[in-house]
Amino acid sequence: MRKICTMVTGVLVLAAAPALAQDGWVTLFDGTNLDSWSEIGNTDWTITDDVVEGSGESGHLLSNESYSDFVLTLEFWVDDPANSGVFIRCADPEAVSPSTCYEVNIFDQREDQTYRTGGIVDFAAPAAQIDAGGQWNSYEIRAEGPGLHVTLNGSVTVDIEDDTFAEGPFTLQYGSGIVRFRNVRIQPL
Description:
Blueprint: H1 2-16, E1 26-29, E2 37-48, E3 51-63, E4 70-78, E5 83-88, E6 102-106, E7 136-144, E8 147-152, E9 155-161, E10 171-176, E11 179-188
Antiparallel strand pairs: 1-11, 2-3, 3-10, 3-11, 4-7, 4-11, 5-6, 5-10, 7-8, 8-9
């Protein structure tokens, strides 16, 4: 009898853990809650139809965990003038900016097109111009040691080596326009 109780307890503990797949992927946003995130700024974050949407003032959803080497995948939808991004390896989570994190940009109509959607602000211009507005898009962001690799909708937009930021949480940014995220997953390496 005792062995059965132990096994049942173990199963219940596993069921309560974060969504960790056998292949090492962790689901950070599955469309139901923001339990894996803290809010920075004054953005109004709402969840509707398995999507989190930002509105109002600028701000970020900050991951509760810190990461150094990882593969991050997510989908985003923005309107044409939207300003957003994914900030990774944030060295100072209290002051999220391109000077404290790598900002993988989502900003088709950025005045200076050098670091538009698909680029890393102040570090790497995107290798291809891909307009993201008005459609669902996918990002795969790989950070492994100094290697930074960004894929947007299946096209490699950044492949550089830089060691400015080594570790930290990441954020989903709302700057302006319509900004939506879904299916956010990370695989620590």
